[in-house]
Every structure is written in C-alpha cells, then in structure tokens.
Amino acid sequence: MNEIKRHYNIPIFIPHLGCPFNCIFCDQKKISSQHQAPGKAETIAIIEQHLSTIPADAEVEIAFFGGNFTSIPEKLQLEYLEVVNPYLRSGIIKSIRISTRPDCIDRDILVFLRQWGVKTVELGVQSLSDKVLKASARGYKVEDVFKASRLIKEEQLKLGIQLMIGLPGDSFDLDQETTTLAISLKPDMVRIYPTLILTGTVLENMYLQGDYAPTELPEAIKIAMHMLLRFQEQGIEVIRMGLHPGEDLRSQGTIVAGPFHPSFGELVEQEIFKEQAAFAARKLIADYMPGRPINIYVNPRDISKLIGNRKSNISYLKKALECDEIYIKKVDGNERNWVGVSFGELSQPVIIVDRPEFIRNYF
Fold this sequence. Notes:
This protein is of the alpha/beta class. The chain is about 40% helix and about 20% strand. The chain is built from 14 helices and 13 strands. It has helices at about 30, 40-50, 75-90, 105-115, 130-135, 140-155, 170-185, 200-210, 215-235, 245-250, 265-290, 305, 310-320, 355-360, and strands spanning about 5-15, 60-65, 95-100, 120-125, 160-165, 190-195, 195-200, 235-240, 255, 295-300, 325-330, 340-345, 350-355. Strands 1-2-3-4-5-6-8 form a 7-stranded parallel β-sheet. Helix 7 (about 170-185) packs parallel to helix 9 and helix 9 (about 215-235) packs across helix 11.
C-alpha cells in the first residue's frame, strides 16, 4: 500500500499588496504579524528556513497569503513566481497557491498563474450576501464571486473559499444562506473566520459609536459548527476555522472586541463531539434501556475534542443524560470523527455514530 505523503504549506505573507480597498474589518499587517512584504532575498530565506524543518519526502506547497496577489503589478507577481520556480523544477516544491479577491480574476490572469505552477486560488469571499458585502465595503457583488469561481474551475485550478461570520448586517440565517451558495460553487476547500474588531479599523469606530455589535464567542462557535457540518455533508474540506494567532494579533490592544480564541477551530470541533456523543448516548438508551455507567469511545486523537475545554463536555453530558458515571475510552484505528457508546464494563462500543450519520440526524 502506498503511504500518503504529508502536506506542508510554506506561507509567504504579502500584506495589503495589490489591495485597492480598505475593508472595514481589515488590517492585514496585524493579521499576518508582518508589516512589510518580503523581497526576493527574504522570500528565499523564508522558503529555505521552512524546508530545513520539513521531511524530504513531503508534499510541499508555497502559499502567498495576505494581499491580493493577482492585482499587484504583473512584474512583481513574476518576481515572486520566479523565486519559487527553481524549487518547482527540482521537485522540492510541488505547487503554489495564492489568495486574491473575486473581482481581481480573469481568464488571462489564471492562464498566467497556471503556467507558473499555481494550482490553487483562494478567494476572499467573506459573504455571499450583497447586503453584507456592501455593509463591509468589499467593493464587489455576489455575481463577481460566481464568475471568478467558474473561471477558476474552467482553468482546472483548485478553488478555495474564505468566509467570515459576524460581519455588519450578518445573521445566523444569512451565514447559512452563504453556506448554501458556497456549496453550489463546489469549492475544493473552505476557511471560516469569525469577524474580529481590530484597533485602527473602520469597524472599531463603528463599535465604539454603537453601530456594530460583535458576535459573542458561543454564538460564533455555533454558527461555524453548522457551516462546518454542512460542508462536511457535501464532502467539502474545511481547512481552517479561526485566524492564526500571530504575535501581533495576540499583542495587547490589537483586538478590541470579538470572538477571538487561539483555538477557535478546536472549540468548534468540541461542540460537534459534544452533540454527537449526546446523540449516540440517547440512541443507546432508547435501544437498550437506561443503564450505568455509560462508556463513550473515540479515536485517541479525538479525546480532547470529546472531553472539551476544562472537561466542559463531560459536565454537559452528565447533566443532559442524567448520568453521574461517564467514562471515556479509546479505540485505536485510522478512522476519525466517530463516537461509540456502551453500558457497564464492556470494552467495545455497541453503537457507533460516525459523522455522516450524525449530520443526517442533526439537520
């Protein structure tokens, strides 16, 4: 059997380069913990430093993030791509991904990118509600997102979609409508970010004047959970939830308000495992009559997600199931995202609920 090679990204941040707008929530310098775009020598140094820590047989990709790569001058795009090109020719680097805006894409741009080894284009979509896009000063409409996505697919490039929850004018229902439309675009991957209020942004002024209220963390987790489950239902991978907690982002005074947590994605996964375990246990009780104690089984790598922050999930399950004896047990294997349950002294689950079954019963 062929072993699957582990994938590594080498991120190169180019904050605000090529961006013709200053969206109300945006401060890419703080988000990327970097204030100047790297030059040629610095880009090479970043690549070499990362390569020194990556296994030789890994699948390695260069990722240009932070700015709108396709709207910076073509000469500068070419300089960045030429730096990477020797690594591509040697096979050390397998591909390149870039991020950009939906209104900064056309067929000629995509052909150029593909010729230089770009295989993935991530669009900073944020929302698929024209109302929310306008309130956030994004400068494009939903139809621009659909056009750009279609062109990316036609050029046989992978499509990534970046979404934000809790933007001005947003709501739970609008986020779910955005999810439905995003699914229709058939992206290869999705990122989900909660909206944070950063110092020095227009959104900060709106917040201080009482014109904007951020989403609370529990609500943001719930919204992201619903979105994640719906994408998983369609086989669309969500590759990140929550901003990377860089040094500047975590420094005092950078985040004014908003649902920030350094492990936001983990909290969303914990919420899912909590609900999935409760569903499995109720199914056990319904099929076999109540018993004590209740054993809950997961893959060892999912233990922290099941237990929850400070054992909050266990406390919830004891109360919800009216059972003071709940024991967590590990079952080794390659499969993830399942929960098993049994009563008494059994060492194996009698009921297993995998993620697809849980999703079918959740919605």
